[in-house]
Design brief:
nine-stranded mixed sheet
Length: 213
């Protein structure tokens, strides 16, 4: 009663909850952390592929939306098309969400605006995901020479968070959906400590050493 009287006298809102003090504090901290987090909007298609947040980038008309559509037919989920809002929710984590105006929609050249939720069901939509990998689509003719062992791995800094980036050359006959899935699978292995290129180098080194004996 004293708190209610004091809040009414000072015109300060008084909130109540059936949760314990520890639970309500955790909930409020989570909400405020996301609400006040530094935000940035990036161009591209943001998807959840095998549980991993993947941002597909590239020049206009390179085929980002077409790739996203094919990934949807393979059971992966759309988070945002064209523009994704990323919030830095911790020192090393960027969480991506879709602006309200664009939710559920995917633009595909020749087909126009598609409602992914209506076409594929609610399971094809994901509300948010942490950004773990960037896949940049680049025209085959403009692609720079790549390391055949390590591919095109590099790191991109977004709001002081380092995000791995892979470049996929786009050309006739290349199945980009399969290549992107393979890139995600390989990224998961790398995060677990396994590097296929390093394993190949070690195997080759061992074979050379054995041959010289």
């Amino acid at each position: 009663a004293d708190l209610v009287e004091a809040s009414e006298a000072s015109h300060i809102p008084l909130l109540g909850s059936g949760l314990t003090s520890q639970e309500i504090i955790q909930q409020i901290q989570y909400y405020l952390t996301n609400f006040f987090a530094r935000k940035i909007t990036l161009h591209g298609v943001f998807m959840e592929v095998m549980g991993t947040g993947v941002l597909i980038t590239g020049d206009s008309s390179i085929g980002k939306s077409e790739l996203a559509l094919e990934l949807l037919t393979r059971g992966h989920r759309l988070i945002a098309d064209d523009a994704t809002e990323f919030s830095r929710v911790s020192p090393d984590v960027l969480n991506g969400t879709c602006p309200e105006m664009l939710q559920d929609f995917l633009e595909v050249r020749g087909l126009g605006i598609l409602n992914v939720r209506a076409m594929f069901g609610a399971s094809a939509i994901k509300q948010n995901r942490n950004l773990r990998l960037i896949v940049h689509l680049q025209d085959m003719d403009n692609a720079t020479r790549m390391d055949r062992l390590h591919g095109s791995r590099q790191v991109r800094r977004i709001q002081d968070v380092e995000i791995p980036e892979i470049t996929l050359p786009v050309g006739p006959g290349r199945n980009l959906a399969v290549l992107l899935e393979a890139a995600v699978r390989n990224h998961i292995l790398v995060t677990k400590g396994y590097d296929a290129s390093q394993a190949f180098i070690e195997r080759q080194k061992l074979r050379l050493e054995t041959a010289h004996r």
